[in-house]
Write a structure and sequence with these properties.
By secondary structure, the chain is an alpha+beta fold. The protein has a domain at 27-86: Alpha-Beta Plaits (2-Layer Sandwich), CATH 3.30.70. It is built from three helices and four strands. The protein has helices spanning 9-24, 43-47, 74-78; strands spanning 31-33, 53-55, 61-63, 84-86. The longest helix is centred in the first third of the chain and has 16 residues, at 9-24. Bound molecules: iron/sulfur cluster (2 copies). One iron/sulfur cluster is lined by residues 31, 48, 50, 52, 69-75. One iron/sulfur cluster binds next to helix 3.
């Protein structure tokens, strides 16, 4: 019986690229939340694809996983109160 060969080169390469990209992220404060403007609506927490935020006991966002931020911009573009800015862009 012929053995089926599965080419995993693409997926391995993709995983390596992702891992290298993540390793490069060393900024502990990739974004700033201007707390006085934030109303704790949770939009940023829900929309962040990288799950960078966690809610504090009052429901306000905390940048809990800064090295996971990929600067996609979704949080600052959707914050209704303009309370989020990037420190890198
Ligand atoms: S989207 Fe803006 S106002 Fe809403 S919780 Fe996040 S920072 Fe605060
Ligand atoms: S820029 Fe993107 S990845 Fe970074 S915290 Fe905002 S939504 Fe999350």
């Amino acid at each position: 019986m012929a053995e089926e060969k599965i080419d995993t080169a693409d997926s391995v390469e993709g995983a390596e690229k992702k891992s290298a990209e993540k390793k490069k992220r060393t900024n502990p404060t990739p974004i700033n939340i201007y707390r006085r403007w934030c109303k704790g609506c949770s939009i940023c927490i829900v929309l962040c694809p990288q799950n960078v935020f966690e809610a504090d006991p009052d429901g306000y966002p905390v940048v809990a996983h800064p090295f996971d931020c990929n600067q996609c911009g979704i949080c600052w573009l959707h914050c209704p109160d303009f309370a989020i800015t990037s420190t890198e862009k």
